[in-house]
Structure formats: C-alpha cells, structure tokens
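Task 17 of the worksheet. Students: predict the tertiary structure of the chain below and write it out as structure tokens. Keep your answer in the requested format; marks are given for formatting as well as content.
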Amino acid sequence: MAYSRTLFGGLILLLWLGSCAPLYIPNRVNTPLLSHQGELQAGAFIGSAGFEPQASYAVTNHFGLLLNGSFTPGKADTTKDYSRNNFIELGLGYYRRLGERTRFELFTGYGFGNMYARYNNGYFTDYRDAAMQRVFIQPDIGFSTAVVDGGLAMRFVVVNARQGRLSITRSFLEPAVTLKAGFKYIKFVYQFGLSLPLNANDLMEQQPFVTSLGAQAYLFKGY
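Model answer:
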C-alpha cells in the first residue's frame, strides 16, 4: 500500500513537471504616475494575460489606490492546449512628484483568482485548476507630460497556487517598461516586461513575458 501511494505521488509529480502550460500568468504592471489628489485614471488593455482592466485613484497628494484585473474570456477548451485565468488585485501606496514631470511611486497589494490549463504532450493530458493568491511590492519611476509618458517598474511578487491538497509558492521579479502617447485626457499605452523566477520550483511554471496594448483615460484630473 505504501509503495502504491509512493508510485501514485510520483506519477502526479511527473504530470506537473512534464507540463508546458504555465500555471502562473502575470498581469500587466499598473504604473499610473499619479501627480495630485483627486486624479482618477482607468484603462482597458489586451495582452498576455487576456483582457486587463485597470484603474487608479489619488486619495491624497501622496497616497493612491490601484485596482487591477485580468480575464481570459470564453469557456475552457477540453480538446486543445488551453490556459484560462481570472484575477483581481487591489493595491495601495505612496507617490511623489520629484520635479515638474518626474514621478516616483511605491505600491503594495494583494490579488486572488484561479487558473485553468490543459496540456497534452503526446503521452498524457495534464489538467490544472488552481486557486491563486499573490502579494506584491512595486516601485516605479517615470515622467509625465501632456503628450507622452514613460516609466520603469520593478515588481516583486510572491505567488501561491493551491490545487486540492497541493500548495506551491514561488517568487518572481517582474521588470516592465511602459510607454504612453496621445492627448491630455486619453493615451494609448504599450507595455513590455519579464517574469523572472527568484527561487527554484519546477511545479510552478510561469509565462515569461508580460505584454499589453490598450488605452488609458484620465477621467478626473483633480487639482
């Protein structure tokens, strides 16, 4: 009986190790570059994590809130390789104007959701249906003008995935570059980033690139 349990556990481990479907799909990094109390921003993006709505609000002249989401629409496909995620995240933090156009921000937060994935490597089919939790801390710096914004963020995350009795935790460093261009109240936004593992755990594979394209509106500029 003990041998059977060991063999079964080994087979489950091989299923996880042999899969190429990423268990962790990082969302885009929200870098609003807030400037003053009352500023409200909202954006919608399509990227490597699916449809990604984001919002930010400057509660005071130095403290702000973030709301992030990432969703893969549609039903899971049970006949093809497939990954699907739903994720919501709330952040809060400090921001400061370093000059007329330069901004610094430091946010931290918590997110949760779920991930479903299917992968067939020709020998077996691996299904994943995991509950995800994540905490993050994110410093970023950038510049903001009426026409062009640019920023560099360095997000550190700790991710926990739980499927049945199996619980996996892994940390990642996620640098990202963001470019915004347009008009005073609306800008088109492109972001490219990486998700770099900081500790070894082959049971949690990640999607290594973070990319997104979309638009961001400045709904209320405050004062």
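Marker's comment: The first helix runs from residue 2 to 18. Residues 87 and 171 are 17 Å apart (CA to CA).
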